[in-house]
Amino acid sequence: QVQLVESGGGAVQTGGSLRLSCVLSGYPVRNYVPGWFRQVPGEERAGVSSIAGSDGSTYYADSVKGRFIISKDNAKNTVYLQMNSLKPEDTAIYYCGAEPEFGWVAGYLMPQLFNSWGQGTQVTVSS
Hints:
Blueprint: E1 3-7, E2 10-13, E3 18-25, E4 32-39, E5 46-51, E6 58-60, E7 68-73, E8 78-83, E9 92-100, E10 116-117, E11 121-126
Parallel strand pairs: 2-11
Antiparallel strand pairs: 1-3, 3-8, 4-5, 4-9, 5-6, 7-8, 9-10, 9-11
């Protein structure tokens, strides 16, 4: 099972930017669907963005389209999430998740289909 370590969280003001990183260990990222998910206390974990291992197709939740960009570096086995124009409602713990590529793209933002997770990194956006 792939191991995931994410980093890059922090505290910013509304309108600021952060870049999250997730390093995959043990297996090449090209064989996985890696993605970013977030969770607020008392709420279910929700998909934010993911990227297909094979062709690099990207997927975004409607709430972050136009503000967040997911990318990956196959050589570094790393996935990134560039977060711009941050809003207070983006405040959450952000988790990197990964699953061997399974092809049903409608499921690429469904956390219940992912079985490997990082430890989480806190993102706090204040007004």
